Input
Amino acid sequence: MQAGILTQLQNATAQLAATGGTAWGQRQMVGDLKATVQLLEEQARELAVPHRWIEFVKQQGSTGLFWNARQQLPAGAAEARDQQLQRLHTEVDHLYEMAALQAVYRDHVGGLTSTRTGRFDELQQLQWRRIVMVARGLNITATEIGNRWSADPRRWTELLDSMRSLPVAQLTRRWHDCTTATALGNARMRFHALQIVGLDPTGTPAPPEPDQLKHTAEQLWHAPDSPHPHTTAAESSEHGIAIADAITAATTTETDGSAPDSTAAGNEPIAEAYIEIEAEP
Output
């Protein structure tokens, strides 16, 4: 698994070193390759690839050398397990934040465009699938996760309170950050890198799926006892209790905590990344 991501990283770096940048098309390719190298490096770190290995293959690639299975990697220290888990927890937190953001922002602006909504939905789905694949790559267990990824009342209360307090300008900025073509392209690249490695997420511990998160966020945000979206905490001191009460009914069909079979209905293949990494001729 780690060899797969290192192969992509070294080959992308070698392609970058071999690509000139005079003509406009070449400059565009250089920019794409730089972005690809950066994303692959981030993905390698997520999969707990030792820092010295990452730096080694980047150095090899920068001299024009493509990956060779016979090359020797330097000794590298393994990353602490709690660091791996915390990074994954942060990604799951972002999934929840996206669901809350969509519910609140839609209310503030009165509706969302189909183009932006389509990008948002795909980005969230890619984020979920990538989390599960990284969890597989790190051999994360249900015991290690515990209830950390579950949709408990406190999590939703804090999220919706936080979104409610944001000015419209900041909500808009966050929404746009999740719905640009660049954000979606980068998400596709990260997901594609894991697909190439060949990780099978079936049976891996997983957070609730995006559709469930969005449904719960919408239901709680528009719950009869929930305060009006534009009221403040001072004007509605009981809103936290109201949201917590509504969660019991909204989350009765909680996920079983594992990833579904990748061949099941609803898991259609997602578009591949916008740039391919070539192996050495």
